[in-house]
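Colleagues,

For the teaching module next term, I've prepared a clean inverse folding example: a structure given as tokens, and then the sequence designed for it. I'd like students to try predicting residues themselves before seeing the answer, so please don't circulate the second half yet.
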């Protein structure tokens, strides 16, 4: 006999439609966060074909139509889902094995996607539906790279200002940030050296344009230094954030809140002053397991994160999180 369901659960089932799974009493999803920042953990939001295989799930973004893009290293590396979690299409087979950074930005009224490939060591720009627009040239930086050493350039993420200036983080290479103009022409670089020195970077994994102060600043997830660094758009050091971080990977911003996937087992929210709001799904010390990040699927815990690599908001304030794990993990945190 089925357990009796609450009014809230009946409402969710009816609102979701006939394709939604039945949610019974005793099977409630965990709720993360507190106060005005509470989220229901939805593990099974995405509906996938029976033969689907994720690789490492590295990037996620939501376009202006509410469609969710997930970038992963397995077959069919770019997956485009509708707002209800149904798979619409896939594209980008050339990114298999190297899919990494995924950045969505606007060019006029149109969405554009910048993809960073750590295997082919390229940065390319597409429409969300997979039409290739251009590729950025190799950054010819004196003293850091030359034609024989292009393998030392391993771009991980990119960001774009309102005027179209592009910043590329060489997160797995020489730890520089490279600047390109809106035509995609290389200009200059800053931050390299794999150093703890202020103004230098060690594994600038994620990068974002933060305009919450009223001025555009380049925000860098200085991951191996476990800090955030701000730079002006001409590459001058501006400020640091060092508290409440655990291997920060990337960013998104919604209504003044800064979203930070911390690779070591949690997702962090900061307010407009970069003060802690809450940590979500904190899985304390999970990264100390010698099998991490590739724990067996049966050992992953609903409501606890393993290795958040990218995260983003949708327009309603829901959060999508993808994790660095060989068989992939994609979760939705529904704003309560």
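(Answer key — instructors only)
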């Amino acid at each position: 006999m089925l357990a009796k369901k609450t009014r809230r659960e009946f409402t969710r089932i009816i609102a979701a439609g006939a394709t939604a799974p039945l949610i019974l009493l005793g099977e409630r999803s965990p709720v993360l966060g507190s106060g005005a920042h509470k989220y229901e953990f939805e593990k099974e939001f995405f509906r996938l074909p029976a033969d689907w295989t994720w690789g490492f799930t590295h990037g996620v973004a939501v376009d202006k139509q509410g469609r969710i893009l997930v970038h992963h290293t397995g077959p069919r590396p770019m997956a485009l889902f509708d707002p209800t979690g149904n798979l619409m299409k896939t594209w980008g087979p050339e990114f298999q094995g190297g899919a990494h950074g995924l950045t969505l930005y606007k060019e006029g009224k149109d969405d554009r996607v910048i993809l960073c490939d750590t295997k082919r060591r390229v940065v390319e720009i597409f429409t969300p539906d997979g039409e290739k627009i251009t590729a950025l040239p190799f950054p010819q930086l004196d003293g850091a790279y030359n034609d024989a050493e292009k393998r030392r350039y391993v771009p991980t993420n990119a960001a774009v200002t309102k005027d179209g200036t592009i910043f590329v983080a060489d997160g797995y290479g020489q730890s520089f940030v490279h600047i390109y103009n809106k035509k995609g022409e290389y200009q200059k670089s800053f931050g390299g050296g794999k150093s703890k020195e202020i103004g230098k970077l060690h594994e600038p994994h994620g990068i974002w344009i933060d305009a919450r102060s009223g001025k555009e600043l380049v925000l860098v997830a200085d991951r191996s230094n476990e800090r955030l660094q701000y730079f002006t758009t001409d590459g001058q050091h501006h400020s640091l954030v060092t508290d409440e971080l655990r291997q920060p990977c990337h960013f998104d911003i919604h209504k003044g809140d800064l979203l930070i996937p911390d690779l070591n087992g949690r997702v962090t929210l900061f307010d407009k002053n970069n003060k802690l709001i809450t940590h979500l799904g904190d899985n304390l010390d999970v990264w100390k397991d010698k099998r991490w990040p590739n724990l067996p699927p049966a050992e992953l815990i609903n409501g606890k994160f393993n290795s958040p690599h990218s995260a983003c908001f949708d327009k309603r304030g829901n959060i999508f999180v993808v994790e660095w794990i060989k068989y992939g993990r994609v979760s939705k945190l529904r704003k309560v």
